[in-house]
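Re: weekly structure request thread

Next one in the queue (646 aa):
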Amino acid sequence: MTKRRSSLLFAVALIAALMAIVAPPAQEAQAEDEGKNIPPTMLILDASGSMKTPDADGQTRLAAAKDAAQMFSVAVPSDAELGFMVYGTEVGNSPEEREAGCKDVKTLLPVEKGNVTKIPAEVGKVEASGHTPMGPALRQAAKELPEDGERSIVLVSDGEDTCAPPPVCEVAKDLKKEGIDLTINTVGFLVDSKARKELECIAEAGGGEYMDAKDTVSLADSMKRLTTRTAQTTETEAEEISGGDDYSSAAKVPADVETFSTKLREKSDGDRADEDGAEYFSTPIAEGERLALSVATMPPPSQGDGLGKSNFALKLDAEDLDCYLDNSGDTGIIDSNGPYFASYTTKRAGEDCPAGDFKFKVVRKSGPYEGQEIPAEVTIKRFANEDLNGVPEPFEEESYSREDAPQAAEDVETVKPGAWFHDATELKADGKSTVKADIVPGETHVYKIKAEYGQKLRGGMKLVAAPDKELARISQLQVRTLNSVRQAASLQESQSVNPHTEGQSVAFGHAARLNYRNMVGDGEEQPSDVAARKSWLDGDQYIVVFFNNSWGGGEHRDVSEVKNEAATYELTTELTGEKIPGPTFSEASHPQDEDSEDNSKQADESEEKDSEESDSSSNLIWYSLVVGMLIALGGGGVALAYSRKR
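Done, posted below.
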């Protein structure tokens, strides 16, 4: 094992231990705000003289801790409430300095939000030198945590307390009695049996856990054991529209709605014999307008035989076949259940495809969740009165093989990817970039990169590390590219996940340079070849990575509640090709827009009339008041004037 790999394993194991300790129960980890699931936590790092000791590979324990701190900064939600303390940094560790050394406890960061990214810099400044005042450090940490609610201390040390009495285990017991909701956890760095016993005692007394890291080999094993976590989940942010049972009862989707959510029923009253369920919708299409539609399922991440007994299929169909230009469906094994995508693109409304109500259906066939609904999002994008002047001829397919994956960029950034399109992680569009992430079975990661017409996305996904257990018959990372409407922009690619395939890469990306005419041809509905036509829209190109771990006849699991070992991958992307002009469009007028304008005009006229009537009524009221006041104040004068006139 190389020095670099050994150091990395050491660092990752430390961070894995920290993450395992501060991680909340699985069912709590799915809350909307992840940061709130980690209780306020104070990290205490041992910086005593023994931390300068090199391990078998020559790296000091403190250096490994510094590497781990960097990983910690990307492994914890940014809004987690964290603090950071050290001991043993200000005084030496000689017997003469013991009294001062046992007070050598320093808070570098108080417990508050926003400290996650600050911790690596603070650790980088630490120099090991002094004694090991564990007891005083625990007491100070407890004082700096909130008085009420759950709170936690994580103590990382490589040896025994050198400042007893009182014994540090007794200190932990006292603190636990004072704060019922306080948990004290410990991590041992290459500790001997005596130090381990003391750290275990602290953790037990504090109601927490002890994590052991004793050598590089066991560190690698503990890394895989301790980095288990549940799969991240997501929920739609789009308004919900329930589908109809057939075309006659199709649900109305207004022209100004671009994305909406719906539930795909297992059975619907209007479905055909070869369909398990279908949701029917209607949306306006104007003369000269083209629609691009997509549907994406977003079920909870699950795996196992209990989900379904056959393959799953998803598709989009339209009532009027004359409107068809292109479509794509999705099918696959559904024991490990991830997102599925289907699309439909229409001709321009006019001679063949009639303007008016465009009726379509989302079809779910077989697959998972017997007796349950599957949540999905539908996206509709409108292209009205397209002008192809200046747009070059369609591009031909540029085939690639898995060996064409680009090499990683010089700098690799560790990220926590988004779980869906609304929180997709944005990738650099200027030049090559590489990101690295951990992913567990059943989890979905979504990235986006903004591309212009004439450009082509070239990407590669490399398996860096694989779990060494719980792998299934089908265990693979799946990657696909979608366009700005979430339509498939390329074929799905996959990389097998097992220890023997670590280091292997697979290429992915567009089959051709982006060109609107790849889909529409010369405007007379003559699209280019099947592969190239998928590369037809500019804007955000989405990259979706899914860890499929299908069990065949295995046990059903909801992996949002069960911890699994993570795989690590690198994603490299770059945009190639010279930019070209794209089409121009003009607004379309839909019947409902005209109705809205008429209604608005009528409302304005009504409001104006009401205003005039209100003004008239107001004037009459004021006139009456004035006359009344005159009568009340000068009634005699008024009567006299009248009498004289007569």
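The chain has two domains: 3-226, 247-576. Residues 3-226 form a domain with the Rossmann fold fold (CATH 3.40.50.410).
Next request, please.
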